[in-house]
Amino acid sequence: MSNSVRIIEMGPRDGLQNEKTLVSVEARIAFVEALVAAGLSTVEVGAFVSPKAIPQMASSDQVLRGVRHVKDAEFHVLVPNEKGYDAARTAGAEVVSVFAAASEGFSRANINCSVAESIERFKPVLERAKADGVKVRGYISCVLGCPFDGEIMPKAVADLARTLWDLGCYEISLGDTIGVGTPLKARQMLRAVAAEVATDKLAMHFHDTYGQALANLYAGMEEGVRVIDSAAGGLGGCPYAPGATGNVATEDVVYMLEGMGIATGVDMDKLLAATNEVSRLIGRPAVSRVASALNAKNRAAK
Ligand code: HMG
Ligand code: MG
Question: Which domains does the chain show, CATH number per domain?
């Protein structure tokens, strides 16, 4: 396998958006800074969505402004529509992500419109982003199953990936939102998508609800995908996806990749410290297996 993988750190956005405890702007900024210091140079830091829908992401403009001094890092934010784009740009966003779904049921629940309507909302965002020199990433949720519509056909994912690509997204991130996928299904889905959008323009965004995320990522890497979305501590989940739990943990991904001889540039001790601090703030331990193992080992060594 080629020796380079790009990790997009989701902790401050996907990671915190589903937590009962609201984390202060200052602590969210400190979390981002700690992640970058640990070597995670691309971080999704917030979402310009309705604060009524996702109160955890309120004040994402302050978070983005607060981290913009950090050098050699790329910060992403979610925008569902032009209103979000305006706010993100005012706060200085240079990379934004639009998010669609492979299923009608989830699209309705999450962003209150059909898949086709969501594409209409994204069109002006992509047009303006192009004129502004802003990069746009495109998410597709529920690529391996939907909490409302059940099974999802790989072709539905592939067609939507093509649409987002044709609109001008520079990368398509494929979300197993409720973590139901298994490796062969993930492989099939990625092959179908790769017939429409080149593999090197795809990212894997796999939640670990059923404990399959690392296996699915490995299958995807065998297909040639080299961009992985993960969240420190295995935080995450979407309030509009019943049953969804955290993203695959960044610690677990880093451990696997390093074990495969793929350098990540991530300092595990610093990442663990960032995870432990955010766990303290939200009042629950990290679900990451590697973080738990290293914390136990460090306690035993004391
Ligand atoms: P809507 O109700 O259809 O929109 O919501 P609307 O245009 O009718 O506006 C309703 C209210 O929202 C108005 O405010 C608007 O001003 C406001 P009110 O008059 O009631 O006070 N509004 C906004 N406020 C702030 N920022 C905006 C914005 N747009 C409208 N951009 C909307 C549509 C998309 C806004 C809403 O449904 C929403 O915010 N949903 C939240 C979706 C979300 O953030 N979900 C979680 C992230 S996606 C995810 O986690 C999946 C992913 O990780 C991949 C994976 O795992 O699969 C990416
Ligand atoms: Mg997600």
Answer: 6-301 (3.20.20.70)
